[in-house]
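Morning run. Coffee first, then this:
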Amino acid sequence: MDHDLLVALKALADPNRLRVAGACAAHPRSVTQLASELVMPEPAVRRHLERLVAAGLVEAAGVAEATAVTPADVTGAPSEVHYALRVDAIHALGRRLAAIEAEAGHVAEVSGPDGTVLSPAEAKIIRGFFRDDRLTTIPSQEKKRLIVIHYLRDRCFTEDRPYPEKEVNQRLALFHPDVATLRRAMVDEGLMTREAGVYRRPG
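And here it is:
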């Protein structure tokens, strides 16, 4: 996240500062007006304006000579200076956040072993239980466990052929040490068949 975006988000993170910004959105207001409307001490209003101006979210308006304002101007600003929300800056902030969200959503996509993109719900579960392509823990919740072992089955056993138990253990051990629980879960859920110590995909 770039510095300017972080500064803007921090400026809006304070509830009172957000109230000041919101009050400036309707029409320009002076420090005195803001203090009265928000029932807030003028020194506090000035401090909040200082942060909002520094973040580029609020600017002076309605005074010809006040073409630019710095934090120092806010602390010594005359009462007739009015402050307005920079709507263009808010819109730009929204666009940047939307772009970050879109980028994160793209990066967060998880593909199954066959290359198809998993559903958002399945991808969230896989990301939550895998770290560095290792299963961190076997889910206790049945729905999540089924998604995880189905994903593992398709990662470990791609061929339609018999798999001796020794090979099954070796393949599953690449992802988690409790191979017995994983083997049993795959059989119990019908994802693998087992006969005389030999496993294979059903059907």
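Confidence is low (pLDDT under 50) at residues 63-73, 75-79. Good start to the day.
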